[in-house]
Give the backbone structure.
Amino acid sequence: MSETEVVDQPPSKSRLRVGYGLVRDLLKFHPRIFAIAVAGASVYAVCTVASSFGVSYLVDHVILPRFETGKIDFRVYLIGAAIVIGIGLLRAFGVVIRRSFAGISNWRTVESISMLLVQHIMTQPMFWHKKKMTGDLVARVGVDSDAAAEVLGPLPFSTSVVLLVFLTGGWLVIVDVPLGLVAISVIPILLLLNVGYQRRIDKHYDSAQHELGALSSAVHESFDGVMVVKAFGAEERETRRLSVISTRLKDARIRAVSARSTFEAMLDGIPSLVNILLLVVGAMRVESDSMSVGELTSFIYLFTLLIFPLRIIGYVLSSVPHSASGYKRVREILDEPLVRDPQMMVRESSVEFGVCLQHVTFGFGDGLPNVLSDISLEIAAGKTIVVVGATGSGKSTLLSVMSGLLQPDSGNVFIAERSASIVFQEPFLFSGTIRHNIDMGRSMADNVVQNALYLAAADEFVSALDDGVNTVIGERGISLSGGQRQRISLARAIAQQSSVLLLDDTTSSLDTVTEALVIDRLHHSEKVVTTIIVASRPSTIALADEVVFIEQGRLSDQGVHSSLLARNENYRLLMQSFEHDREQGGV
């Protein structure tokens, strides 16, 4: 059901349709488990009504005769005890089945929704992920999936409440018509109270769930970009931003809790007042011999047992807005169509190539200038290419387009064997072992891991560690130096055995000797790998087979380093500025 359909319907009808659609979709995941929970709840409902027979029997045939005669008929006592204990045990069995399988249904549904989300997210191409906030996706897989299935917890019990209401209402009227009518009058009052509460609470849960997703996204964004935050001295601004979001979340939840507390106070108060009325009227009925003490006792007992299940309906109705909000955010991701990856294309060519770009143009939004403009480029397989340009010329964006992290606005991108791995200047490492950071849990063969470490010139320092590749490196690789982290990150990309390796200033933390060693090993590796490097270090540029010179998002020139120095003045001036920066930096 689309959002427009909901908006076009009257509020009460739209809520009914939303609730029905939500439950229908959730029950498709594990219907058998839910059915067992409902069966257990039904056993509980029947036994709850039946237990009043046992109470009435004990009061009229055991307790009252004991006060009147001072004696107890042991046979009658055993029959009464057997009735009460038997019904109690069966009722307890129903409770255990209902609670156990309701919980299993809830947990497995959360797991199924989460797995659907993860599979859908993983199927989307990389440029789709580039447009999404990682924190928001994590929130949808986590807190939103939990919220979506929340309604399944009390739902089995609430379905049996319908049966319980009919059985109890009928029995109360059969026992005593006037008193029964007073008792069942509270049922529509509580149902109307529940419906009114749901209408009031909807907007608060929608707002709270939205703010929770926004906070999760903002926290993840701030954590992931901590280096940028520090570099620009934006700690206070980020603190204020998170404070504003968390305050909005707090206010939304306070409003929801305030509405719920009022609702629950009325749920407690109204039945208590009716109970007092039943005692007064019931005492009058006993005094007039219209009913027995046992019947009145079972009547009050049954009415008391009925009130709590009626409250469960309130819990279900109060859970529906929360679950609907979470499920709505889940569906927003699941309903997004799978986007075709522009790199999944086959190109007929008589020349073996590594990367081919045809009239590629890219910009970050309408009204903004293009970052890349009409770039056409073909790089032969196995070559080592360096992309050079001034700051802001589009070098990193070019590599992101080649890798598929960004989708070009126009033009085509072709990658040999349709596989490319990109390594950024600031590597991200996990807190596990070096092996885990390289094979990413894929249980790669030892020779694959060792070869990746060798090509990344990381084999020597890794073998010198006490536990070798099994060394735990800490969060973000804190126990390693900057150059070591870069080489582990590079080894991870190499281990994927992609045909194209994209290095976005990846070797900037390495000394010139190690950098030359890495490039030489990559160039002479057994697998033909096309290596494209964004670099500003003259020593790196000189090692390349060819240089691609980018100016203001356009391909300005392409050729051997020495040739570009001779024929292109802008390139020559850029190299001189690079040399000057290195000298000023003491490199």
